[in-house]
Queue: 4 jobs
Job 1
Amino acid sequence: MLHGSPVSYVQVAAFLVMSVIFFLFVLRALAARTREAGAKADRRSRIGIVLQSIGIAAAGFGFVAIRTGAPNLFDLFDTAVVVALMGGAVALFASSSKALGKNWSLVARTRSDHQLIRTGPYARVRHPIYLGMLLFLLAMAVAFDHWPQLIVAIPIFLAGTIIRTRIEDRLLEQNFGQAFIDYRDSTPALMPRLSA
């Protein structure tokens, strides 16, 4: 199925507005990047980027039937879910990219002056930006009522995420040795532990 039931314009508008905010933070992080001679990059992470992008696109692919009448209680609930998921996505990306500072990059790489960040969202998960991207994917499926697409979208997105996290973890282990191993062993990759 490439489309779901008609959805309220309110939940679609909430998703679109918060998507703009999300992408403004992405643009801010891109603008703050600095090039550095001597950076060690692993271009294979681009495969992960492509798969994550396909997963997100799969969640949004298809027709969206929008109702323009007054929203009902279910519409308001769906809108609240969209706002919560997108709020999490925005907060995770904004705080994570800020914590990373000059370490942030699209492609997996370490700088010669790279720092192992373990504060902010990195105190709870090693890859909070990917968790934020997963929340974005879920928010899109709720906003557009594309639940069936999640059967395809989530596995593709997670396959890309696994590729990226393994490459990034390998680079960080090579750069930081035991300090990263200790961090990896005590901090989950993507989903925070419920207990503190």
Job 2
Amino acid sequence: MVGVTIWRLRESRPDDDKEVRIPAGDAVKEWTPVRIAADTTLSEGQKVRVAVESARSGYLYVIDREQYADGAFGAPYLLFPVLRVRGGNNKVAAGRLIEIPGPEDNPRYLTMRMSRPDQVAEVLILLVTPNPLPDLKIERNPIQLSPAQVQAWEKKWGAKVERLEARRQLGKPYTRAEKQAALAETRLLTYEEPLPQTMYRLQVKPGDPLLVKVPLRIAK
């Protein structure tokens, strides 16, 4: 199981918890992240955050690729791990929360942009491996990966995936527990605290890497 929560940022309201608001740095003073379903279509210019949890211990890699209307993909970029987030530590375990961008990044959100008119999505490839990927150099900022290498991982580790959506949690705002878990590696979420918005159940053999694709669809 791999859990993913996509947060769409909206302008903060007076009754929103001040501890979880995000400075905007523009006409809006502050943003509040709220949960959305994985298949939500986003408008260009909207701001999002992504949180990832894994039920299995291992090492998390997050790769981003643009997708176009004809099915083609752009160059793959490694969004996580990077040295500026947790010093490049990408270990994951049950209850450990990883956020993209990191809680200390500036800005603390991704802005949906179309690089060309026929772009339809940003596709995040989430990969949890039992051991660190060999010969993969981690730098301070995202690096471009070899398309052939990423395609080989997809072919080798792709598996049947079932998606489960926590409908009752849709629209709920970010919590202090989630913020604390994102900031501190030793702070783990418990079953009494918010679960991931979307769960991906993979049919894989014990010990095999977990690979999930999460498309962030962009509306024209």
Job 3
Amino acid sequence: MKSDIVFRLKQGSIGVLPTDTVYGIVASARIPEAVERVYALRNRDTDKPCIVLLPDAGALEEYGIVPTVYESEFLDKRWPGPVSVLFPCDSECFFFLHRGTKMLAFRVPDHAWLRDVLRETGPLIAPSANPQGEPVARILDEARSYFGSRVDLYADGGKLAGESSTLVQFEGNQMRVLREGKMKL
């Protein structure tokens, strides 16, 4: 099943996958058309970037991001895990991801199966699997009730905790919490 999921995501399909926090509606962060499908399905504000899931911190290089020593030490302690980190990303080639904010949030999930998928698919956008403003999906049937056949594939991970990731941003050698979530800092 994993090989089918990987193949389909690399071809531009969108899916609902379990993460270490909540179910996410995922698409390749390399395929603008797939990203736009996710925005349309979720009725997501078009100027609001999505979190990008990575298999490891080294994948930040694809976005031109080179963490400082302080940032690297932080990431080494907290990734994989339920903490998303906001980094400057002003390249126009990633406009479809940063939506003009010139900032992107990244996370390495603490979910071995999903990191294996990410190693093969590359980065995936992964907003929670619910229409904007609705409760997050904690079980797969909740996500199916939201999206039905408009999503190309579903993977069941059982009942999930249902708490979003913590979102942080660095300012020099200081870390600022922008959203409290599953990881308490």
Job 4
Amino acid sequence: MKTIIFITGNQYKFQVAKKAVENLGINLVQKDLETPEIQSTELEKIAAFSAQWASNKLQKPVVLTDAGYYIEALNGFPGPFIKYANNWLTAHDFLKLMKDKKNRTVITKDCLAYCEPGKKPITFLTTAKGKISEKVGAKGTTSINEIFIPDGFDKVESEIPREEMVEFWNKNKDSWQRLAKFLKSKN
């Protein structure tokens, strides 16, 4: 079994990842490590840079994920800057930006980046869909999850039981399987 350090302080992200690697021969160990985040509109570049930095710092194989929320009516805003948008904007602020917008589609992108010390990182990108609600839902952990309705649901993420959201984020997300296949091909 391959042990990899999963860089995150977010217990929810770690829970999703642990579920994803069940039966893949990967043992994830969580490490809360603040990584530098380059300024880029390309999610893959941001995740790759952070993974390479963490791997070289820890001198161990690492994996991390970075996400972006691309609201079609806002020309893809906030994209990979969702972390900052969540700090700056409330759910009500997001809804003000969406006033009179007919297209409420959101494409979420999740980039898994893997790196070994001294090597180039590799990335795997997956997407999911949803929409922006018409009103703010229950208090959540972020502004976006108070207004994001994942495909297949009729309520915002903050009102959906965590177990169901873990399943949603893992559904159609083959990044971990692709990572496992990559690791096996190296041996």
